[in-house]
Design a protein that fits this description.
Elements (H helix, E strand, L loop, with lengths): L7 E2 L25 E4 L2 E4 L7 H6 L9 E5 L6 H10 L7 E15 L11 E18 L1 H10 L4 E12 L6 E12 L1 E3 L13 H12 L12 H12 L2 E3 L7 E3 L15
Antiparallel strand pairs: 1-3, 2-3, 2-5, 4-6, 5-6, 5-7, 7-8, 7-11, 9-10
Helix pairs in contact: 4-5
């Protein structure tokens, strides 16, 4: 980040409700980095910094009392955390977000349109791939709130071998089992699942609108109400199933002990 110690205000970051084309993160790539979120503020961390001290200073639970969840899409964006926790407050809203490497995983678009007007991403199995992304540690209460914002098409699955923190440095965590959201369908325009690193959200939305409702391209940053049905139909018509490998274990979100039993289960 431009200033590794500058505390940031998440409310000053653009909301994806207003700017869905900014998905998954309204910040520039250079302004993203490891951090601890808390109380609407973002506390950047040095690349080799253990978040424990910052969590203690904010009164947050330690890593051992949290569930490690891979943040592939907008959950790594502080403004999304602010919006979700304002809508459904939690006792402890501190969330550490660290760089992570996940083996055999790719980030692809799901064949759906979110309520906020963007096409979200999903985890998919990709043998031999090395996915560099983010890992967050969530309390049981936080995970319950986040899970409620993930549509029923998303499955929470346990994946092995995630390395987080500093991959090559003084501090790090892993390899450890962590959890990730995988949608039941992926977007395929004819050459296989469409990955986030191949097509940006603005490019994808222009593509979708040109196919479903070209006139909507003239109407600004949000999809006009008249085009939403056509866009969803266009996406559904280009969906393929997202098959999970045997090594990924699906978690029952409706179980009475979800998500408490996930804490410390690695």
């Amino acid at each position: 980040m431009s200033n590794a110690r500058e505390v940031l205000d998440a409310a000053e970051m653009p909301s994806l409700e207003d700017a869905p084309w900014a998905y998954p993160d309204g910040r520039s790539a250079r302004d993203r980095g490891p951090s601890v979120y808390g109380g609407g503020r973002v506390y950047p961390l040095a690349e080799d910094e253990d978040p424990a001290l910052r969590l203690r200073s904010l009164g947050g639970a330690g890593l051992g009392d949290r569930v490690p969840v891979v943040a592939l899409g907008s959950n790594a964006y502080p403004r999304q955390l602010l919006d979700k926790f304002e809508a459904d407050p939690v006792a402890d809203d501190t969330v550490p977000t660290l760089r992570a490497v996940v083996p055999d995983l790719a980030i692809s678009y799901a064949a759906m349109l979110s309520r906020k007007g963007y096409v979200p991403v999903s985890a998919r199995w990709a043998r031999g791939r090395r996915c560099e992304t983010w890992l967050q540690w969530l309390t049981a209460e936080q995970l319950t709130v986040i899970a409620a914002t993930e549509g029923r098409g998303y499955r929470l699955v346990r994946v092995p071998g995630v390395v987080a923190g500093v991959v090559e440095g003084r501090w790090g965590v892993g390899p450890l089992p962590a959890y990730v959201w995988a949608h039941t369908t992926l977007l395929d325009l004819g050459s296989g699942p469409m990955d986030l690193d191949a097509v940006s959200q603005p490019e994808l939305l222009r593509m979708v609108l040109a196919g479903a409702d070209a006139g909507a391209l003239r109407e600004g940053r949000r999809l006009p109400e008249r085009s939403i049905g056509a866009v969803r139909s266009w996406l559904r018509g280009r969906s393929i199933g997202n098959r999970l490998p045997d090594g990924w274990r699906e978690i029952d979100r409706d179980a009475a002990d979800f998500p408490g039993t996930l804490i410390g289960s690695g």
